[in-house]
Amino acid sequence: MLAYLAGLFSSLLLYRTLFHPLRHIPGPRLARISSFWLSFRLRDGPSFRLLHKLHEEYGPVLRVGPSEVSITHPEAVNLIYGPNSRCSKNAFYDNGHPMMSLHSYRDRTAHDQRRRVWSAGFGDRALRGYEKRIQIYRQKLFERLEEQAGSNLTINISKWFNFYSYDSMGDLAFARSFDMLDASQNHWAIEMMMHGMTGYRYLFPSWFFRLLATMPSMSKDWHKFIQFATDTMLHRLSEQVKIPDIFASLVAPLNGRDPTNDERNMLMGDAMLIITAGSDTTATSLTSIVYELARHPEEVEQLRAELGPIQVDKTGEYHHDDIAKLPHLNGFINEAFRLHPPIPGVIPRKTPPEGLHVKDILIPGNMTVYSPQWSMGRSQAAYVDPLSFIPERWYKDTDLLKVKSAFAPFSIGSYSCIGKPLAMMNIRTTVARLIMTFDVRFPQGDDGTRWMNAADEHFSMGIDQMPVILERRQ
Q1: Is residue 17 part of a domain?
Q2: CA dihedral 255, 257, 259, 263 (to 10 degrees)
Q3: Is 257 exposed, middle or buried (0-12, 13-18, 19+ CB in 10 A)?
Q4: What secondary structure does DSSP assign to 38-67, as a single string?
Q5: What is the pLDDT of residue 173?
Q6: Are 128 and 324 in contact (CB under 8 A)?
Q7: Which residue, among 316, 416, 422, 333, has the nearest Cα to 103 in the 3D structure?
Q8: Which domain holds residue 403?
Q9: Whole-angstrom distance, CA of residue 279 vs CA of residue 259
């Protein structure tokens, strides 16, 4: 038996290093041998920083596993994710089985059918309804911030954006808030979810990830969250809501009947997708935007000059339609997305059977490929002066964009984020009110860099700390 295993290992070693179709792609030697090499390296930090460092060493096409390639050619974004891409989703998206969500459909036809159901919940009329619902939680957010503003008091703005995002998305998913803004702390189920998602940061091979999920000691927190979400979803199914939420669109095809087991798993997956994807990414985006606001007070003045002529309601709220097309506001937000993308690292795809040509390099068929947005946003091949924060590059100095299609913070193509209009509405209106209500600065001796450098990742980026001082504007 030992001789057999030794022979098998030796054959596998020789094949992956000398005869594998990816043998011509540069990368660390040990990465050629085992998919666990990447997982092992991620114990020291998130994938987007590791990949960026490796790309600087090995170039824009990088082998990081036996059948896995990271690419930072700007053209790769459209080739891998674009509307005409022949790439498909790989086994990573099966990790939540038996729950299914819009995010996890690998079959393009099935995905497109489910996306049409979701689309009903993201039309203009629906978004106007969500805007009113979200304003309730934004008012609570600003009341909490007002209580702490002034007196040189340091506020962890990231924490409050997380409370706000989960409360508002809980309402949109289940027609009930998590009440985190009221309690000034995380809901226990959100704590369980955050603990349960830790395994995603290591990018384990899918078979190993699913093995860990069967071990109670490794997945108990995640299963507690699933049970809570299941109970909450069933309660929502029994309710009639006056103002439609996103979930109303998802259950509309049932026409009032009880869901089958498969439909229940699908609704469960979709509800969890609304909470996790909608909350995490919005909170991270708002935090990174505040980081850049505190770093660039001259930009704040320009934003205020743009927002000043626009009328607000008695609470200081902007109507989204009035600010949606402001060039400098959108340019500022895009620059923050470029340098601090909410999904910064691995969004895996599988190459088509005929392979994928990137520049003059052929990536063979049935390989995992991705193009990390964090590195792409810092690419001199995609942007002029990429490390400088220049909002004007998005509306005036467009010659600073070498390859605009490299910018994809919400991904692109058939699998792009369907919640982008909702996220942008939320981000624009929150940032506009924040700018016009408070002066934002870092505590003395701090420039926010160490907190941004400490950002972690569990598929989406997580910024745990961002201490700032808020002063009420006169």
Answers
A1: no
A2: -20
A3: exposed
A4: HHHHGGGS-HHHHHHHHHHHH-SEEEEETT
A5: 82
A6: no
A7: 416
A8: 24-472
A9: 26
Considering the chain, what is the average pLDDT of its residues? 90
Is 45 a member of any domain? Answer: yes
Amino acid code (one letter) for 372: P
The amino acid present at 429, given as its one-letter code, is T
Q: What is the CATH number of the domain that holds 155?
A: 1.10.630.10
457-471 pLDDT, tens digit each: 988 899 999 999 999
Q: In this structure, how many other beta carbons lie within 10 angstroms of the beta carbon of residue 164? A: 26
Cβ count within 10 A of residue 312: 15
Binding residues for heme: 417
Q: Which residues are annotated as a binding site?
A: 417
Domain membership of residue 9 (yes or no) is no
Owner of token pair 């193509």: 413
Rg value, the chain, Cα: 23
Q: How far apart are CA 138 and CA 429, in angstroms?
A: 9
Report the greatest alpha carbon distance in the chain: 79
Amino acid type, 113: Q
What's the per-residue H, E or C state across 81-149?
HCCCCCCECCHHHHCCCCCCCHHHCCCHHHHHHHHHHHHHHHCHHHHHHHHHHHHHHHHHHHHHHHHHC
Which residue positions in the chain have pLDDT lower than 50? none
Single pTM value for the model: 0.93
Alpha-carbon distance 280 to 463, whole Å?
10
Structure tokens at 146: 């007002």
Question: Is residue 375 within 8 Å of residue 47, measured between CB atoms?
Answer: no
Q: In the chain, count H helices and then E strands.
A: 20, 11
Cβ-Cβ contacts under 8 Å for 120 (sequence gap 6 or more): 126, 249, 252
Q: What total of structural domains would you count in the chain?
A: 1
Q: What per-residue confidence (pLDDT) applies to 1?
A: 64
- How many Å apart are CA 395 and CA 398, to the nearest integer? 6
Torsion sign, CA atoms 56, 57, 58, 64: negative
Strand residue runs (E) in 196-329: none
b/e per residue 216-229 (b: at least 16 CB within 10 A): eeeeebbebbbebb
Domain membership flag for residue 18: no
Rounded (5°) CA angle 99-105-108: 160
Residue 366 Cα distances to 67, 86, 227, 353, 375, angstroms: 8, 11, 36, 6, 24
With beta carbons less than 8 A apart as the criterion, state whether 178 and 193 touch. no
Residues 39-97 pLDDT 10s: 999 999 999 999 999 999 999 999 999 999 999 999 999 999 999 999 999 988 888 77
